[in-house]
Amino acid sequence: MQAEAKVKRWVLAGLATVAAAGCAPVDPATPGRAASAPARQCFNARNVNGFQVVDDRAVDLNVGANRVFRLQLLGTCPDVRDAVGVAVRTRGGSSYVCEDNDVELLVPAQTGPRVCPAVDLRQRTPEELAAERAVGR
Predict the structure, then answer these.
(1) d(CA 57, CA 116)
(2) Is 0.90 surpassed by the pTM of this model?
(3) Could you give the CA distance from residue 123 to residue 41 in angstroms, rounded to a whole number?
(4) Contact between residue 59 and residue 86 where contact means Cβ atoms under 8 Å apart
């Protein structure tokens, strides 16, 4: 009886492993091998300490000492070009931002803060930033 329970546990553990592997993304370059998922890059909204306007649809947020996140906005955010400051508001109750639907940009306007929702968020690479500095953006 005890041996039978042990076998059932091993079988269930094996099935769970196979099921989890079946849900892993597959690398198209090597069929049958699971792709390594990119690690999520999160930041605490309280650590945003600056911004640069890319255009009226995108803003780079400076986070901490040396991280920069590109925030792509839903449509245009007309007042962002003239803003001397912006605020980052998280959605969902957490102060951490990990995905584009976690954050909104608040831009001061004469009628009150304009809410500009994000549609894409990604951390900029050091290579991208160095290339922009070399060009003198």
Answers:
(1) 9
(2) no
(3) 7
(4) yes
The 10s digit of each residue's pLDDT in 41-78 is: 899 999 999 999 999 899 999 999 999 999 999 999 98
Amino acid at 114: R
Spell out the domain ranges in the chain. 1-37, 43-135
DSSP state of 108: -
**Looking at 66-136, which runs of residues are DSSP E strands?**
67-73, 87-90, 96-97, 103-107, 114-123
Q: Where are the beta strands (DSSP E) in 10-107?
A: 43-44, 48-55, 58-63, 67-73, 87-90, 96-97, 103-107
Distance CA 129, CA 114 (A): 28
The residue behind tokens 């608040």 is 106
